Hints:
This protein is mainly beta. The protein has helices spanning 8-16, 23-26, 40-44, 48-51; strands at 27-31, 55-56, 63-83, 89-99, 105-114, 121-141, 152-153, 155-158.
Amino acid sequence: MLKEIVSHGTMRKSHNNPQWLDLESIARVELTSEDPAFPIENALSTNPERNEHGWRAASAGPQSIALVFTVPTHLRRIFAHFIEHETERSQEFALRYSSAKETDREIVRQQWNFSPAGSSQEVEDYTVDLESVTKLELLIDPDRGRGQSLASLNALRLA
């Protein structure tokens, strides 16, 4: 068994100050819908001011955001932040990836109930070890099949 003792200071530093990838320079984005007032660049930016507005779909129902990497990329962390202040709804999202070895392999599937009076934010932070990723896809069903709500994403960060 391989073992490594890691001090708490080292763990805290790497988790709080990760080296986020500059997605705008290393990936092409393919998406199913976009409200021009809330472009995907807002959600992919490492600038917190742009994340305040995030991305929003122009049409209701399930949406897909795919990052197609210009060169195969090693992913160690995936951070996603969703905010819903207006509508009570149940959302489901899935993350999947493709590499030279695998196609559309699911990483996680998560459901969340938004309630503007209570739980209005979903923050997911996954530690992964995905080598040679050619595509990462985020699938969002904003109201689990009802087709009445707009999908949104405040931030998506990768390290």
